[in-house]
Write a structure and sequence with these properties.
Blueprint lengths: L8 H20 L18 E5 L3 E7 L8 E6 L2 E8 L18 E8 L4 E11 L2 E8 L12
Antiparallel strand pairs: 1-2, 2-7, 3-4, 4-5, 6-7
């Protein structure tokens, strides 16, 4: 008896990549943990960074959190945004059919230019978006010296 089998050359490659990257996925992307009864995934909020004449403006998408759960630290030329979005333990996890939103800790770190003025910064969290405005130091313009 002969069978007709559809040949899909890309499926073998997909399976190969899936097997290659499975260990790293499991390391960073734990699913249900029955012991802890929680969901934990590594996740990184998306950011937009814009430069204007007098500031750097950063928008980070961090929906579903309270501002108290978000920490922003500015030290030297390092900006760190971190926090944790917790899975609602009040709900019975057996009622869920699909969980795609990310929960757990997040951490973003950015190296800032030396012209950022740490004393001229603002932070606002509204509608799930964290907005940081990092003012620039006044430019030091070269000056001419009279030679005596």
């Amino acid at each position: 008896m002969k069978m007709i089998v559809r040949h899909d050359p890309l499926s073998r490659m997909e399976r190969m990549f899936d097997e290659m990257f499975r260990p790293s996925r499991s390391m960073f992307n734990r699913q249900w943990d029955d012991d802890a009864e929680s969901i934990s995934k590594a996740w990184f909020p998306g950011v937009d960074i814009q430069e204007t004449e007098d500031a750097f403006i950063i928008h980070a998408d961090i929906p579903g959190m309270n501002r108290e759960d978000i920490k922003v630290e500015l030290e030297a030329q390092n900006l760190t945004i971190k926090g944790e979005r917790k899975f609602d333990r009040e709900e019975n996890k057996e009622n869920y059919h699909l969980v795609e939103r990310n929960y757990g800790c997040f951490y973003r770190n950015f190296r800032l230019p030396s012209n950022v003025d740490p004393d001229n910064t603002e932070a606002e969290y509204k509608d799930g978006v964290l907005m940081l405005k990092l003012g620039k130091k006044p430019e030091t313009k070269p000056r001419s010296l009279n030679i005596k």
